[in-house]
Amino acid sequence: MNNDPTAPGFWSDLAEVLVEATGETLYMVGVALLVTVLVGLPLGVVLVGTERGGFLEAPFGSRRAGVVINRVLDFLVNLGRSVPFIILMIALIPVTRLIVGTFIGSTAAIVPLATVAIPFFARMVEIAIKEVDAGLIEAADSLGATRWQLVSKVLVPEALPAMMLGLSTTVTSIINFSAMVGVVAGGGLGDVAIRYGYNRYSVTHIIAVIVIVFLIVMVLQTIATRLARRFARRSFDSRGRTRGDEADAARELVSAVDDGLLPGGSRR
Amino acid sequence: MISLEHVSKTFGAGPRAVRALDDVSLEVRQGEIFGVVGRSGAGKSTLIRTVNLLERPDSGVVRVDGRDLTGLSSNELRQARHEIGMVFQHFNLLASRTVAGNVELALELTGVARDERRRRALEILDLVGLADRAESYPAQLSGGQKQRVGIARALAGRPKVLLSDEATSALDPETTRSILELLRTVNRELGLTVLLITHEMDVVKTVCDSAALIEGGRLVEQGGLVDLIRAPGSRLARDLFPLGPVPETSGTVVDITFSGGSADRPVIATLARQHGLDVSILGAAIETIAGNQAGRTRLEIPGTGDQIDAAIADLRGQGLLVEVVSQPSEGVRA
């Protein structure tokens, strides 16, 4: 194998490498995303609920339990969001080994990827749910809703447009981080960039990886934005402010948190 | 149907504590529309929210349909809330659901089967006049239509009681009237007991059978509208028929309240003919309240003390409520 695009077999080798790597990346990102949503969504809901005056203020009848749960989760989320990914990845090696059996390969990479994405997405969920009008919670209460019904029938459906945008930002950062797992032999497009681009100095490989990653991000962003718009199109309130505006506001907030302009902690 | 007994509620603690409800007792009879009037901050919102325990009072008893809600477990309270519908000033509809979906939400929470939910939602939407908008989203509706959806949602579970928290305050006068008519209709057709709070006297005048005035967390007055009008010195009656400030004049100024049968009596002609007094009308307000013509007239009566005393006695003898609001400062009267 060589770096010379004019050499025989270069393009077919390139294609083969890229197809395999793209598959690995999609696999890592896809599973990590699934785990992130499954864990991050309830986490975000509990974060909002256990706040002072929240709907889960006093779980098991104890306000103290609510405070403790809120503080602990808030701390964990902040911790997860503040440790640089490359360090987190190395620190998690024993955990990864415990769960997957090895710390090398695409499957093993899912563990650090989900670990870094869960706190991030949980914050997005928290912000999206806080945006839901308190009047709706009151209406659900007046109708005799249980807490579970409040969450599943009111809060989550109403927060869906903003959560969709949060999800799209989350996917982008998972893809971003997935490139880094190439460092610890996690496979995927990042691995290609390191092995061919860095070690062998193949510009063609680097460009190809950039193009593919860009395409993946663009496609996913477009899908997420479309979905968010579709949910939001139904709704603008009587003050003429569209839910689209709210979604935009949420997105700005998301990127502010993302950029570290806002503390990762509670919004207040 | 609804009764509050010595209900108190304080927000905050220490010197900054606000006593939102101060020993409030109130009785809403089966099938009537009861209005609580007050300015913002008077505690009326807290009051209506204690009825379904969205706000739990510090002390006192809240009874709905004979049952003390304050003693219920949270599970029993949820069940009890299915019997108490509530509509809100800002509608509080789910933007993610259609009109029918919003109404069905109330039934989903009680575990009604899908087909039955659908049938009931359309039935109740028909009652509020929105059958053709079942598949619209709230964002596509006007304020009045949104409130109709709010009412439909509140009624879907066949409650015995409807609480209305400033339901018309975000609406224009014409829409307000149509929503009030709807409340009247459901009150009559479904035999629903309605407790509403408002800061608009017009709302009370238009739909209420009984009313209460709340000020600084205390109920200052309450009773049937017709009785309130006849009660001397009633603040509510004065607010229902505002005659403005008392002007400075040299004569005696009296406010006469008519109600029921006395409304069509020729009072001014009587004064002029039998007592030879040239009265002038300073102000008047006539309304139909709870099906009765009622009103107030402010008259200025010139003349001396004895003449006026005789005239007032005569008017009172006819069953009219006469209140002297101003007398000449040069004490002609003893």
Account of the protein in words:
- The complex is a heterodimer of chains A (268) and B (334).
- With 268 residues, chain A is mainly α.
- Chain A contains ten helices and no strands.
- In chain A, α1 (10-49) runs antiparallel to α7 (147-180), α2 crosses α5 (106-130) and α8 runs antiparallel to α9 (203-233).
- Chain A is elongated, with a radius of gyration of 21 Å.
- The termini of chain A are far apart.
- The model of chain A is unreliable at 236-244 and 260-268 (pLDDT under 50).
- A six-stranded mixed sheet of chain B has the order 6-7-8-3-9-10, with helices on both faces.
- The longest helix of chain B has 17 residues, at 173-189.
- Chain B has 334 residues and is an alpha/beta fold.
- The model of chain B has no long low-confidence stretch (mean pLDDT 87).
- In chain B, a hairpin with a 2-residue loop joins β9 (210-215) and β10 (218-224).
- The A-B interface holds A 133, 135-136, 138-146, 149, 153-154, 157-158, 160, 231, 234-238, 243 and B 52, 54, 77-82, 84-86, 88, 90-97, 105-106, 108-110, 137-139, 143, 146, 153, 157, 163, 170.
